[in-house]
DNA sequence: GTCTATATTTAGATAGAC
DNA sequence: GTCTATCTAAATATAGAC
């Protein structure tokens, strides 16, 4: 059977390309980054990039496919929790973990923008986002049962809104100023029951 | 003295170009939009666009210079208010007014991304944003004095965070689902004094 | 002032040697 | 599998007619 001579080397090269691409895309944007730059930063030739990936958009998508396992782990960690309210805060903090890294901020913006332009990317991101959204929605529902989350909230809508708030934290990234405390306050107060306002 | 033959016509043409450009940039992004498309949509030739604007980035910047007066009016409206808390909610709602328009959402993302790439754009946006931020910070400070806003909040930081939350509302734009109620709840609860959590 | 036509540049993608 | 060299397409910006 035909097979790659050295799968490990193959994977290493592939990851070198993805690492370089991720950094460059975050700093310069998708269109602002050339395949030649990626190849150069990864220490391979321009032609090799097209051996590993079909085209430039495929490189961008692959960068985000790496995020999927991370998100799954984050949700799985809190599956059997007794404290859904605290679990939500922890998941949100995990999602926003590197929100104070300006390059992560650039990547998020670039991602949001390209979703509308690359249908296949939409599928990749939707898959990763769905894991988080369903996990959060489940935690919100359990928080409502436990009486620690406002029963007027719709779990699915709330999960989506929480994702948006996390994105906002990335947008507000400034060197030397972590948005995490404000994020935590925002989410905790949003969820709590027993306020006078109505949605 | 040399002067434009018909200033009114000149302005009309300029605005036709800006209108077309705004729509196309929002839908297709900056790089995804060609000057030829803008010209065609505005009913002029490609060459004419370069008569009205120095280059393509200048067209993009001009689209946002239009936002400055709108923001100023929004802040000015609440200058002498007796109810700073309500005023903040109103300003935020005004900023997010067209957050449920998907094309506005695309434009915000595109804007955030291009700020890092076009220094002059950064200046334009910073000017518009500063008006809002200072206005909001003033209202937060007055709310603290009035006892309706949590005194533990820093007015300047809070104003910045509120701007980020508004951006989140744009990101969450989905047809048939306005993010405004969630935004209102988020902001109101974030500001209120007398919770157990600490920032 | 506005057009048409085009020069210039650049980058994605491929062909074929090794 | 990886390289070098190159082809091709596209889009910005300009030159010059009207």
Major pleated sheet of chain A: none
Q: Which two protein chains have the largest interface (Cβ within 8 Å of the partner's Cβ), and how many residues from each?
A: A-B, 35 and 36 residues
The CATH topology assignment of the largest domain in chain A is: Tetracycline Repressor, domain 2
What is the CA-atom radius of gyration of chain A, in angstroms?
A: 20 Å
What is the overall silhouette of chain A? elongated
First-residue to last-residue Cα separation of chain A = 62 Å
Structural class of chain A: mainly alpha
Total beta strands of chain A: 0
Number of domains of chain A: 2
Do you know the CATH architecture of the largest domain in chain A? Orthogonal Bundle
Oligomer: homodimer
Low-confidence stretches of chain A: none
Query: What series of H and E elements makes up the topology of chain A?
Result: HHHHHHHHHH
Beta fraction of the residues of chain A?
under 5%
Q: Helix coverage percent of residues of chain A?
A: over 70%
Instruction: Using the coordinates above, name the CATH class of the largest domain in chain A.
Output: Mainly Alpha
- CATH superfamily label of the largest domain in chain A: Tetracycline Repressor, domain 2
